[in-house]
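Fold Annotation — chain and its backbone

Encoding — discrete vocabulary of local shapes
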Amino acid sequence: MKNAGWSTQRVAGQVDRSECAIKNCWEQWTREGTHAWKTETGATKKTTRREDRRIVRQALVDPTVNRSTIGADVGVAIVPQTISRHLAEANLKSKRPFRAFPLTPEHRQLRLQWCHAR
């Protein structure tokens, strides 16, 4: 409609939107060539999708690798929290082997008595 020479007020009345919305949409169209709203908010991403996959792959290949090593291997200056977030998105969490509680000889004796009683 704007290409046809319609005024902003006339376009706004036709599509039932505010003049400000029509003006912003037209400015974006002339500036970027698109009317789509940006879907992502916040800071721009520092890594590409390929680098994201590489972070996850390195953690899968070598579970003992730490965040600083992964960051150095990827070759992008990112903070360790970014690496942790990518691993969490891939359902990878830090895994430490659970060690049994240290039992004193007294604890062992009490457990044994409890077992014999039952």
User: Anything to note?
Assistant: Residues 19-32 form the longest helix (14 residues). The chain has six helices and no strands. The chain has a mean pLDDT of 83. Residues 63 and 95 are 8 Å apart (CA to CA).
